[in-house]
Amino acid sequence: MRTNQEIISSIELEYQNKRRRNEINLQKRKRKLYEQYPYLEKIDDEINMKYLSIVKDSIEEKNVNNKTYKDIDELKKQKKQYIMENNIDMSSIKMNYECNICKDTGILENNGKISRCQCYINRYNSLVYENMNMSKLFEDCNFDKFDIEIFDDVKKIGKFTQREFMSKMRNKALSFIDNFDDKNEKSMLFYGQVGVGKSYLCLCIAEKLIKKRKNVVYESSSELFEKLARYVFSSDKTQNSDAAVFNSLVYNCDLLIIDDLGSEMTNDFVRNQMFSIVNIRAVNGRKTIISSNLTQDELQERYEQRTFSRISSYYNTYKFIGRDLRMPKLQIK
Q1: Over the stretch 37-74, which tens digit does the pLDDT of each residue have?
Q2: What is the pLDDT of residues 297-319, one digit of tens each?
Q3: IstB-like ATP-binding domain spans which residues (predicted)?
Q4: Range of the structural domain that residue 147 is part of
Q5: What is the Cα–Cα distance from 212 to 216, expressed in whole angstroms?
Q6: Which of 70, 88, 115 is at the close of a domain?
Q7: Together in a domain, 192 and 111
């Protein structure tokens, strides 16, 4: 388990690498544009040289010649005219950021006060969560240890044997990971009887995406709603409280995995929270995976039509088949 300072150092390195990648990509795009329009590079070089002469004169405490400023204005006019005549798209040489608010620094300045950007806070909270909750789960639950041979390959259930079905689901899971950033990639609902690999596949997906630096929250439904209740019914709503941090992660993490939905004691609070989570995350384009031992009809009855309607619209649903596996090492649920 990493220390808090190690987590902070890791995030600082991430942000440094972001800025470095941004600058490298910008220079590549600029070089490509200059190769296509050499005269544009010539004008930019002349403008830069004029600015350098101004800086040099300032350092040497010399009076800057007003003609230099006029030359710069004239060069800028020439540049603008050249861009218009050649219909050049200059948007390609603008700096691109993952976070346009802090420009990938993780820092905000307002009236001389320094604070952390929300993107930095989300990344920190996510790494702390992963550090505390996820590491042990991944020791055996990952695609490297996904053994398709443990599933039955004799008895067909519908079109497939259990092994054939799990092989297809493994491929679907990997496709979900590969296309995770595609807005058209839907969330997923895994349902079926106990012990057929739903939770194990969820953990494999989580492990892979965390390695891709995605923010993943994995919770059993009973733990999820218990933790949300601590926030909702708490008098301490400060941003940095543990309950507030978790509540924010549930709605803002890249991937939320709700395992074993239906195992909790379902009441009006749970139903309202479930609708809020499914609805808000769907509207904001954030992906969710839900696993449950309940049938689709049972889910609709327990969590109401409005929630199931959102799931039907924004989720791909998969019914897991086969015999109940109780493998001590894999702990497939």
Answers
A1: 999 999 999 999 999 988 888 887 777 778 888 999 99
A2: 999 999 989 999 999 999 999 99
A3: 130-303
A4: 134-319
A5: 10
A6: 115
A7: no
